[in-house]
Amino acid sequence: MTVGIVGYGAHLPRYRIKVEEIAKVWGADAPSYKKGLELREISVPAPDQDVITLSVEAARNALARAGKMSAQDIGAIYIGSESHPYAVKPSGTVVGEAIGAMPACHVADFEFACKAGTEAMFVAHGLVKAGLIKYGLAIGADTSQGAPGDALEYSAAAGAAAFILGSECVVATIDETCSYTTDTPDFWRREYQHYPQHAGRFTGEPSYFKHVLGASEILLEKARMKPADFQFAVFHQPNGKFPMRVGKALGFTRQQIETGWLVPTLGNTYSGASPLGLTAVLDVAKPGDRIFLCSYGSGAGSDGFVFTVTERIREVQNLAACTRDMLDKNVVYLQYGEYAKFRHKILKAEGE
Amino acid sequence: MRDVAIIGVGLTKCGELWEQSLRDLYVEAALKAIKNAGIDHIDSMYVGCMSSGLFVGQEHLGALMADYLGQAPVAATRVESACASGGAALRMGYLDVASGASDIVLVGGVEKMTDVSGDAATYALATASDQEWEAFGGITFPGLYALMAMAHMERYKTTSRQLAAVAVKNHANGAKNPAAQFPAIITVDDVLNSVMVADPLHILDCSPISDGAAAVILCPADQAKTLCQHLPVKIVGSGMATDTIALHSRKDLTSLDAVTKAAAAAYRQASKVPSDIQVCEVHDCFTIAEIMVSEALGFFEKGKGGNAVETGATAIGGKIPINTSGGLKAKGHPVGATGVAQAVEIVEQLRGGAGARQVAKARIGMTQNMGGTGASAVVHILEAM
Amino acid sequence: MPTARAWREYPQRYRYEAAVCKKCGKWHFPPRLVCDACKGEEFETRVMRRTGTVVVSTVVRVPPAQFKDQAPYAMAIVRMDDGPSITTQIVDWQEAQLKTGAKVKLEFRRISDDGEAGTINYGYKAVPV
Known about the structure:
The structure holds 3 protein chains of 3 kinds.
Chain A: E1 4-11, E2 15-18, H1 19-26, H2 30-37, E3 41-44, H3 51-65, E4 74-80, H4 91-99, E5 106-110, H5 116-129, E6 135-143, E7 158-166, E8 172-181, E9 187-188, E10 197-198, H6 204-223, E11 232-235, H7 241-250, H8 254-258, H9 263-266, H10 273-284, E12 290-294, E13 301-309, H11 313-316, H12 323-328, E14 332-333, H13 336-342
Parallel strand pairs in A: 2-14, 4-5, 4-6, 11-12
Antiparallel strand pairs in A: 1-7, 1-8, 2-3, 6-7, 8-13, 9-10, 12-13
Chain B: E1 4-11, H1 22-37, E2 44-48, H2 52-56, H3 61-68, E3 75-79, H4 85-98, E4 105-111, H5 118-126, H6 141-156, H7 160-174, H8 188-193, E5 196-198, E6 201-202, E7 212-220, H9 221-227, E8 233-242, H10 257-270, E9 279-281, H11 287-296, H12 305-310, H13 327-331, H14 335-351, E10 364-371, E11 376-384
Parallel strand pairs in B: 2-3, 2-4, 9-10
Antiparallel strand pairs in B: 1-7, 1-8, 4-7, 5-6, 8-11, 10-11
Chain C: H1 3-8, H2 10-15, E1 17-21, E2 27-28, E3 43-47, E4 51-60, E5 73-80, E6 85-90, E7 103-113, E8 120-128
């Protein structure tokens, strides 16, 4: 059975903050951050936005592109995030109620640092392929935070991408998947801690690069394809540099990576990162295009996918907001004070 | 139904009355009214109060006040219609006497609002709106009246200066009222320069948070002159009406249909028309409310209420003096007391006892009390006997 | 808001479900047991479209406690394309967009929560289109 993406959608907050604005407050050198991270500004969720609200809107956009199907036919809803609003109470049930998929639905929240979104896709794909469900909704969404003044504060951003997977009316087939996982302590957050911690430069070679390269090489072999066979490549994008470097190391070109490379003006949307890159690619892809996707989640692991775009893509691209439009248009820039207020970084009175 | 007269009135000051509790306030006003009426017993009593539960954690006010007034075992109960609780209590007391069920009835209104924080008071007041579908989303009470103001300004070109003129007039009147919470004179610029609460309403467009109580004594009109040495005042018309609880469900955001309907019932019962009314207390919870009410009561054409106040038509000495007491704005708005306090002011006017606020030769007066954004309205017409 | 009370309203807050009077066809949002147009007592559940028009709006500058982080914020009466009018916050707006007649669309947002440890109340807000 051919399984693939039936509908896809994204949702981004409209607020942004520039690297200069953050650097100003901490007395840091903005140009060197911009150069080192290859990013200029990041998205900021409004006080009334969180993983659940972003996921609902992304899911609604995915349904808008999914043709005649009913939300009632969704058999599973998986949301991957590292900033679920509740520690105990699933985000998926709220999303499921909001889109009218309940009650005949399996729901689970996923977590695996930045790759929780592709995990949701990986598992939903499996259930559809096994014939256990007709459609599966997989979402990667985050509103993650970096500690004040930490390097991560310059890149942690918010966004959501949703995919409805099924076997009918597919816009992109999933031809191959793989996963590559080890126990690697590069980035973590203990229970009850507000902000995550990371191991500095250890997050590079032994972490991001090892797993993305590892998964990608296995995937290319499984698919019996070379980088040149693909029109697009999407990698996890914690900053502007890493995906370009890993892509180059594998043999992909800058042009192949650019379409799905949102991080310079979006920031790192964690579990939403490579999924959002994929939505930006689907917004402009043509029938027959091959897409290579490899995520990365600290801890650590990578999920890889090979997609082939079908004829149906043309019918659906304009049925909902396009990712680049949401990224570039109608944005509002915040000062650090407003940003800190929105992100609850200001210490308030007890009980507030 | 027999005719009913008001033979006694009593009022506490309005303000932040730290030393007085909810029951202290009601009893003070009630005792004053009883003494003013010169009666020695009552047959039943009513307590108008919007939200004693949220403000001081106290319900069961009928029994409480009867007890503390030393009047138990008299029949007593609380009447609630949000900010129209006082007016509604007055109507219940009126019907109690008119029906023949009771002869001498005490109607008092009270609210104790300053024991809780500003946030808690705001929350309590918002319960007058639709909690689930208005308040919960963050509209706030001033926000709802701001929407009405915006609609009125858009359709009829009512201006912020005209809204401010209401506050200025009411403060000018309040300055002559010893019971007023804010007797200071203010100007239109004072209002326009005060902090914006919800566009276009400034803080000086809004009535305050107050403690206070007011009370009246009712009796059959044919017993009034025997019982009481003051000039008795007859209730010649009483009307009450409701409208949709939520502002968004109204047919017309610039109209107060419940006020118009309640007034129509009162005018019909009293065989009177708007031009008969010589002095009127209206529910100026916000300046826009007074303008809209003055139109709904038939004093001015729809849309002309702003111009009327700006040109002095509603000042003492104008065509129809409105809120000689200072209104809710300057006198204060202890919510449950307001409807009864309005009756006290009109009775004083009709008795010739309003001092510096006196409207010359006033014989027919009106009170208009309103709950929420106009979802409840109570109108009474009073005539000197 | 106590959890049961919020939960009872999910069909409206999450899915914009209205009750359409079987007798006279009037859409009611939220649903009610008696039609206020014809006193009918039978209804059909229909989901409202998310789009509507601003009837009138204001900007709340002195907020109640749970909305302190969002002040100043815009509130409006919006007439939904299917008929009912609702009171809702307008978010992500620019000054020029807060006009009578402006087109808006409902979006899923957090409305409030019962403190840091309480449940989160989700519902609808309007965004300009």
